[in-house]
Give the backbone structure.
Amino acid sequence: MQKQRASNVTAEGLLVGMGVTANCNLNCKHCYSLPLRGQNLTLSQVLKVAQTKNINSINFGTGESFCHPEFSEMVDKCYEMGIKMSLTSNGYSIIGLADEQLRKFNDLDISLDFIGKSKQNSFRNGQSQELVDQAIEKCKRLGIEFSITAVLMNINYKGIPQLLKKVAEEGCNLRVNVFKPVPKAGIYKYRLSFEEFWEAVYLLFTHGNLISCSEPIVNAMLDIPSTVPKSPCGSNSIRIHPNGTVSPCVYLTDSHVHIDHIEDSFEAAIDTETFKRMATVPEFCQTCEKIDACGGGCASRRHLNGGLDKPDEYCPPYRQKEIPEIEVTKCRKAKDLVHSSYLCTMIFEGKKTDGKEI
Ligand SMILES: C[S@@+](CC[C@H](N)C(=O)[O-])C[C@H]1O[C@@H](n2cnc3c(N)ncnc32)[C@H](O)[C@@H]1O
Ligand code: SF4
Ligand code: SF4
């Protein structure tokens, strides 16, 4: 029998992923928002979310937020309401917002998946590298904390050392999200195999110092204590999709909960089956000694991979493989980044290489 664990919303409150728009100035080959193009939240829907009880912070993502004509106003209003904010951008929104608006964010994420302009621009189908360069310069000029965000795919994971070298040079962090399939757009081909996933993790820990990790299977296998055990999606964090539906994760778009039906808190939403199913612990995991740290692994990866009743596809015991031996070096300075405990993600700083080639 599968079991469901309890929600772990903390006293600090919910982290909200807000997709104000699914529209974008680019057209990346892997993007989960491609099937949602044309959808937008209204200003009043965004403010309604900001006013609900127990909100910790809002991260703007899904599409490219500045493509929403009222995005500047949304930022100003959320800031006035005392909401801690972050933004994930391909550079366009960071360039478009005024300096004083950008200063309202706790931290910013700029997406870069390849070192090399031609690869980056061809993958993102546009002038992505130019936008990234300008956004980095602007963050540095304004002294705003920022991370470079890369999606780990089978076509770029070998470039992790170069990405970590780049962040060390820029004085920022590297956040990595593992690629997830997008069934509605038929995008599967960038998925990492079991071996590629663990090689990517090895490269990250060899060339980087860990700032935070909320990938449950990595925490469980490498014995990394996590402030948010198990999958944070749906318990610690929620997503508002550009069509107004509320779900535990960007990869779960079949939710029946809608922002227009929310009253003054998300408590009732989190109590629905849409959310509670994220806490399903597979039968295989019931006797695992890592269960408290892992809970079965990333719930959305399991959902996309054929069912929440199966463990994470990157689980070594499940795949009957050796547990990888990887040395964990932590970053000395603690950092308060909105993304640290908001989805299954890993954040690193680059190790200093003393100018040596990687
Ligand atoms: C959807 S984008 C929205 C924000 C902005 N347009 C950008 O590209 O950063 C947010 C992040 O999700 C990543 N992403 C998009 N599709 C993905 C997928 N299928 N699997 C994993 N990450 C994905 C993007 O690369 C980006 O870093
Ligand atoms: S820039 Fe972001 S939202 Fe736009 S297509 Fe690429 S990943 Fe998707
Ligand atoms: S068996 Fe389940 S709980 Fe244990 S490490 Fe694997 S996925 Fe996680």
